[in-house]
Amino acid sequence: MLAFVQWGASTTPTVKLACVCHNAMDNLNHNLVQIIDLASSDKIQELCQPLALLDISYFLYIKKFKNGRELFLTNNGEWERFFLENELYKDDYFRFAPNYYPTGIYLWSAINCQSIYKYAIDFNIGHGFTMVERTKHYTEYWHFGANIHKPSSVLNDILNNMDLIKRFMGYLKNNARGTLTELAAKLHNKNILPKDALSPELTNDTAKNNGRDLRESFLQMINTDRYYLMLDGNENYFTKQEMACLNHLKNGLTAGEIASALDLSKRTVETHVDNIKIKSNCNKQFQLGYLLAKSGFI
Fold first, then answer.
1. CB-based contacts of 63, cutoff 8 Å, min separation 6
2. Domain 5-213 in this protein, CATH class
3. 267 and 273 Cβ atoms separated by less than 8 Å
4. 147: which strand partners?
5. What is the pLDDT at residue 21?
6. Residue 82 burial (CB count, 10 A)
7. Is the pTM of this model over 0.85?
8. CA neighbours within 13 Å on the CB side: how many for 189?
9. Do 199 and 8 touch, CB atoms closer than 8 A?
10. Exposed/middle/buried for 210, CB within 10 Å: 0-12, 13-18, 19+?
11. H or E segment to which residue 185 belongs
12. In the CATH scheme, what is the code of domain 224-295?
């Protein structure tokens, strides 16, 4: 399901327990019901059919902007309708506290959302994971799940085909553009969810910094003069400064922005980037990006 949603303000910094209201249908915004029907249309179902070859039966895509608006797309409108009308988003850190998770892959079994999972089982949703991808202006959440009646080993099989899943992500975004445009027009400047449904990303500093602090602590503990990466079957070593530049490059920063972040001159950063290209046997920066993605570094 695909839709822009404007969340309202909240002063509550912690995730609240959602109480399921079995008669909540009357309270669900009629426009949102129409949006769900449109966003989980036959076309979206058809676009998601390749996932069945990987035993993926549930899919949800969310694009959340820094101003609180979000866009979402799913192949299971029935579950999304139940999820929203019963306010289960209040137990979902991805929706309610989006800054809690940095870029990465998160197994549902490792996330404390049992209050959601116990209802998802009734919709045959389980054995899943979420990919989080952050940019300067928005964050994308890609949720993939298998039928709950499948053996738990199905998740390993899915993760072993991550290259196919990433190709599907690009395929879906390209072929769902028409649906995106139509939904964006329907939802222009409209508030869909209640104001108390806002994620605390603007107020919850603890959640916002949690992932970043963990990553910084980990990187400090493995601090070394040289780092070895396997790129396209070849082992390459990079200096500490080159790795710092790589980490910013993978987030889309320019040489000038990296220089500012690392307190270096722009020319020094450009030299580091040139050395990285030479070591990686890449003539162009886009080749380097492709190589890093292929290696799993980004």
1. 70, 71, 72, 138, 139, 140, 141
2. alpha beta
3. no
4. 125
5. 41
6. 19
7. no
8. 0
9. no
10. middle
11. helix 177-186
12. 1.10.10.10
